[in-house]
RNA sequence: GCUGUUGUAGCUCAGUGGUAGAGCACUCCCUUGGUAAGGGAGAGGUCGAGAGUUCAAUCCUCUCCAACAGCACCA
């Protein structure tokens, strides 16, 4: 029995069935065998020692092949586990997968690791890699594996064996004396991991990602084929850190946080200017199709009981009473009424919809609010502007008929993409989140909503011309309905959900909202929740990182600083500032008794986009000498021309069209 | 919320069981200097909060608060 093997160059050869990749490579040349770390059979990466059972295309992968990177990292995770068990016998191993920029391994150990342990672990890892033991695979029975792990005291591994689906074989990989349950594949030997690896950080992580389970200690690491690639990656991390919005927020004097207000922002004048620019921009984008409203910040608990939030969202809500009632909870004379600080705008908007009788002719009603909401977020979840407890949503609710729903979802999508494009985000991820376990509403309602949204999602992907990736997040929907999530990526590679479109068949029913149909009958509207920036705070955080503080002129809090060279030009500098304001530009004079080079340095570090230097010459000729952020060039122009050019440059993107 | 780390001047950080230091920033004086730090003087801190151990705590112990890195949760 022979099989036909096709090589990448198209050549075909016959081999006996179940020949291994290793034998084929070795048969071609010893040097090929030496540099090959794994193979791809019909595009699927496999152990080189795997037998080939039928006709197939084969590719031999060397270390530098992009597909080998995962193997290097995965093998490195095994090396990490072996090193840890050699150094600290009795430490239990669990899982060690490859992740986006490296790998991790979770261990169960009484005393968690600290970064001080890293040098010792890395040294041991180098020893293990230098030993260059071969990876060999064995198939074991479940009982054999469980007995083995039980004898070693590896309770977590026993659990893992039980979790493997019955139709899958159980593979054990051996590297020298060390052996681990693993799906594979692996490279031919441990030495192929190389030396371009680094342990990055330690952290706690729940066993199997469930907060009810014990906390394990996780070691993160990364590995590359070459040292230069590792160095480049580490450098990139440093660069990303410089863009961190928390750092830039401090350096550029945009906002701060303090202990008394965890998760709530103190906006400084400059940050607030940007915030207002962003709101103004969004407001202009809504002018055509939406009506803007404003609903109360606190509403009686009973309203939240009706909406379902009190039941389903309580742990994330703030409740308020009068301070007297709070301090004297037993006093029958006190007003003990409980209000909730709104965590969402929707119940308020339903009240606005219900006020006055609505006709089918009024639909769709698109109701927008820059609504300030408060949510009690877990303390560990807070993260600068990205995750806060009080934030402003660019929220809107659309009340429409079921027939209008699809068109409305698409209209929202158009606006979303247009807004993101204005800020330079044109590749993004849209995901449909489906029904969670904890939910309200009938299964029929969920079926209908998910059905329509699945169609819309397909359309979004089709019409994006490949720029938008879509997917499904099963079980990730809100408790009241399925949703689309639009995700942008920050400078440090974290993904943040910004936009969201959520269909809600539930809230109108709970509040008894209706409109009068063409037939004169009461009909229940469909409600769509949608936000584009999501949280204005988060969106600004993402913009800060995306631009690295070098904002386009229209967003920059301080657009121009006018710096006199000597105090002789002070009066002219003030005149220039006035002219800037008359041109609608945000400007300030820096009249301090400092040298021009000192001022240039300071305002450059503060990332002011434009510096006007004015001396005796400029004052006499009514000119300004312009220096732009990021350039050392100087250009002298008449004040009138300079302002005209900047005025044009400072037009927001939506007003250029 | 969980695990770990951290908390000293506006910022970045030293430091010690006997009640604190540097650089930058700040104030004042000198300097009027043409594009990334001119010189001098001065002011500024209940050492995150509370309790305990001690003759004595910023330092040791405990509790709490906050931040950071993950996890879990989420806009």
How would you sum up this structure, described in words?
- The protein is an alpha+beta fold.
- Helices cover 35% and strands 27% of the residues.
- It is built from 21 helices and 36 strands.
- An eight-stranded mixed beta sheet has the order 18-23-24-31-28-27-25-26. Strands 2-1-7-4-5 form a five-stranded mixed beta sheet. Strands 8, 9, 10, 14 and 15 form a five-stranded antiparallel beta sheet that branches.
- α18 links the parallel β32 and β33.
- The protein is globular, with a radius of gyration of 31 Å.
- The structure holds one RNA strand of 75 nucleotides.
Given as residue ranges, the uncertain stretches (5+ residues, pLDDT < 50) are none
Count of extended strands? 36
Roughly what fraction of the amino acids lie in strands? Answer: 25-35%
Radius of gyration: 31 Å
Instruction: Indicate the structural class.
Output: alpha+beta
Q: N-to-C terminal Cα separation, in Å?
A: 70 Å
Cα shape = globular
Major sheet: arrangement of strands: 18-23-24-31-28-27-25-26
Helix tally? 21
Q: In which range does the helix fraction lie? A: 25-40%
What does the largest sheet look like? Answer: 8 strands, mixed
**What is the mean predicted local confidence, pLDDT?**
93
Summarize the structure in short.
The protein contains 21 helices and 36 strands.
Task: Produce the secondary structure layout.
Layout: E1 2-6, E2 12-16, E3 19-20, H1 21-28, H2 30-35, E4 36-41, E5 44-46, E6 51-52, E7 56-62, H3 68-87, E8 92-93, E9 98-99, E10 102-108, H4 118-131, E11 135-140, H5 142-152, H6 155-163, E12 170-175, E13 178-181, E14 197-206, E15 215-223, H7 227-243, H8 245-251, E16 255-256, E17 266-267, H9 269-286, E18 291-292, E19 298-300, H10 301-307, H11 309-312, E20 319-320, H12 323-327, E21 339-341, H13 346-354, E22 358-359, E23 365-374, E24 390-400, H14 405-422, E25 428-433, H15 443-463, E26 468-473, E27 483-489, E28 495-504, H16 507-511, E29 515-516, E30 522-523, E31 526-535, H17 536-547, E32 560-564, H18 570-582, E33 587-589, H19 596-605, E34 610-614, H20 616-621, E35 623-628, E36 635-638, H21 639-649
Parallel strand pairs: 1-7, 18-23, 22-29, 25-26, 32-33, 32-34
Antiparallel strand pairs: 1-2, 3-6, 4-5, 4-7, 8-10, 9-10, 10-15, 11-12, 12-13, 14-15, 16-17, 19-21, 20-21, 23-24, 24-31, 25-27, 27-28, 28-31, 29-30, 34-35, 35-36
The structure holds one RNA strand of 75 nucleotides.
